[in-house]
Structure formats: C-alpha cells, structure tokens
Write a structure and sequence with these properties.
Elements lengths: L1 H13 L7 H4 L2 H35 L12 H9 L18 H4 L18 H4 L9 H5 L17 H13 L9 H8 L6 H13 L6 E6 L1 E3 L1 E4 L2 E4 L5 E3 L5 E4 L2 H5 L7 E6 L2 H11 L9 H4 L17 H13 L5 H10 L4 H13 L3
Parallel strand pairs: 1-7
Antiparallel strand pairs: 2-5, 3-4, 6-7
Helix pairs in contact: 1-3, 8-10, 12-16, 14-15, 14-16
C-alpha cells in the first residue's frame, strides 16, 4: 500500500505541470537536481514494484502444502482409537467369504486379504512383512496394489521404478513437504527390507493390472470432511460446504474403506472446470507453462519403459508429488527431470492436472 501511494505521488509530481511548473517557479540550477531526484525516485519505485510483484507471484504459486493433499491425522484421533476396547466381532465385506476382526484388519504384519482369488500369491514381504522391522506392503498399498489417498498406488508400476523409489527413501532424497505417517513409515521401517524382499515386492506389484479406482466428480459443493486415519472422511451430519480450490478425495464407501476392502475405491470431488484446464496442461503444456506429459509418460499416460503410469491415479497423491517436485523436497534422480516441468505451475495448476489424470482410465 505504501509503495502504491509513493508511486502515485512521484508520477503526480512529474505530471503536474498544469498546476505547478518547476521550470517556471524555480531557477534553472535549482530545478535540475530536483527533477533528477524525482526521476531517480520513480526509477526506484518501478524497480521495487516489479520486485514486489515477482515475489508475490512466486508466493502465489504454491501457497504452502495444501492440507487436503497432505492430510495429517489429529493426535486426538489416535488417542481415542487406542482408548477403545478391543472388538473381536468378525467383519465381512460384499463378495468375500473371509471374515476378519478389527484387530486383524489393523494388523500391519498380517493385513486382510478379502479377495485372494483376484491376485497372484503374495510374496512374504507383501503379505506379512518381517517383524518387527518391516510392515507388510499389502497393509498400506493393499493386496491388489491400488493403494489409498494417503499413500501410493503401486499396481502396474515398472519394477525398476519401485526399486529406485525405495533407494530414494533410504538415502533421503525422497521426502515430503509435510511430515506424514505414511512417509515416516516408509523411511523408518520399509527401507529396512532387504534387496531380495524389495525385488520380490516390486515384481509382484508390477505384474498386477490396474482398474478404475477413483471416480472424479466436478462440483461446487462437497460434504464437510475431517482427517481420520490420514485421509479425509465426511463429518457425520456435517452438511456441505463450497469446494473452493480443493480436491476432496474420500472413500466411496467409508465403512468399507476402513475395513481395507480392496474392492472399494474412492471418489474425488474437484472444482468445476478443473478437467478442461487440466487437459490443456497435460496434453499441450498450455502455452509453455509446462510440457506435454505424454512425452515421458507415454501417449496414453500409462507409462513408458521405467517411467511410471500417471493415468487414473489418486489426485491427492499426484498433487503431493507435483508439489514436492516444485519445491525440491523430492530430489532423487527422477525428480531432477520433473523440477523444470513443475517450475511454473501454481497450486491451482497442480490441482487441475491431478483431477484430469485421475479421470482417465488407468
């Protein structure tokens, strides 16, 4: 505000010849230094204003890690969950003969496999991990590899790519802009897996076939949500609110999601117009704001060689990765290629790209 007033005052003084002429009212020798000073002031104001606008534009690009993509579970939730008495009532899900208690469902070393007939036999590290150091890969990423919004879908990714990501987690080059439990678990536990275990898991997930896992809906209003279990969940009786410039990704059936049913996917609410804008960014680069994603990720965006598929993936996950590439938080070898690609993207651009990619058939 002060800069704006100073700029207006300086230009007004230079342009006010009709009311007060420096040439008329001051001797020639007195007029020159004043005129030069005013010119210097104007130059300073213009340069400062340009610098201020540049800093403002830079700040607007990301505006800090978005809470709706980097969901952090409130401490109170974990405390309440631990205080609840053990419930050993068998649970069931549609289309499965299996039965698991909540204690079993939440066992990180023995995750529920509701549909064992729909995937090949899991390697030991995927099915059970290795106590006490390595949690079962299938607990977070599910036996079918589809994953959840708080982590990554591994289904169909190149085995070599998965192996490289594990190496990046281990050497500290793959981190997140906000500290979340899923990333912390990858670093403190999963990096203790042996090369043989990592190879077995990578080959298992790479052979699986992806399926549509996220339904994308453009809307102006969304259910009110809160963080539960490191993802967004609708507030019971909470009504709706404007979506704003957010992606709200939650379980299509929250009860089934909580039971880690690998047949129950997710719904992502996105702002109206996101898909059109995202398509322009993904397919054309949108006037050199970025590059066409298909150049590296393949014409169908389902990966190429050791480059991962990005079609049909969780939009929350995609936003996190774009944000981390943009800020340099994720800095592995592959990340260096993404740094210039994301340099000019705003958070709204990232939202639109993620929304469009999630809407594609995987």
């Amino acid at each position: 505000m002060r800069m704006h007033m100073l700029r207006r005052a300086a230009f007004a003084m230079l342009a006010s010849n009709s009311r007060f002429s420096l040439r008329t009212h001051l001797p020639h020798r007195s007029w020159l230094p004043i005129s030069a000073a005013l010119v210097a002031i104007c130059a300073f104001v213009v340069v400062a204003a340009a610098r201020n606008q540049s800093e403002k534009t830079k700040a607007q690009r990301t505006q800090g890690p978005p809470y709706w993509a980097f969901v952090v579970e409130p401490p109170a939730y974990a405390s309440n969950a631990q205080a609840k008495p053990a419930d050993d009532t068998p649970r069931h899900v549609p289309g499965s003969r299996a039965a698991f208690t909540l204690r079993q469902i939440n066992d990180g070393f023995n995750p529920p496999d509701w549909h064992p007939e729909e995937h090949p036999p899991m390697p030991e590290v995927v099915a059970h991990g290795r106590k006490p150091d390595v949690f079962a890969c299938g607990f977070c990423h599910l036996p079918n590899g589809q994953g959840r919004p708080e982590n990554a879908g591994l289904v169909g990714l190149p085995a070599a790519y998965i192996v490289q990501q594990m190496a990046d987690f281990k050497d500290g080059t793959r981190k997140a802009s906000k500290n979340t439990l899923p990333i912390a678990v990858m670093v403190t536990h999963e990096t203790k897996a042996t090369p043989k275990e990592i190879k077995a898991a990578a080959e298992y997930f790479s052979r699986l076939k992806p399926k549509t896992w996220v339904r994308v809906v453009e809307t102006r209003t969304v259910p009110r949500t809160h963080a539960v279990g490191w993802m967004l969940v609708p507030v019971a009786g909470g009504g709706t609110e404007p979506i704003g410039r957010r992606i709200i990704e939650t379980g299509a059936n929250v009860e089934q999601t909580e039971m880690r049913n690998d047949e129950s996917g997710f719904i992502a609410y996105v702002p109206v117009g996101s898909l059109r804008k995202g398509k322009a960014l993904v397919t054309t680069g949108d006037a050199e704001k970025t590059i066409q994603c298909g150049i590296c990720h393949g014409p169908d965006l389902r990966g190429s060689s050791n480059v991962p598929t990005i079609a049909g993936r969780s939009p929350s996950y995609i936003v996190r990765q774009l944000y981390d590439f943009h800020t340099g938080t994720r800095s592995g070898a592959d990340a260096q290629l993404m740094k210039p690609v994301t340099a000019k993207l705003t958070l709204d651009d990232m939202l639109s790209i993620a929304a469009y990619l999630a809407s594609l058939h995987p």
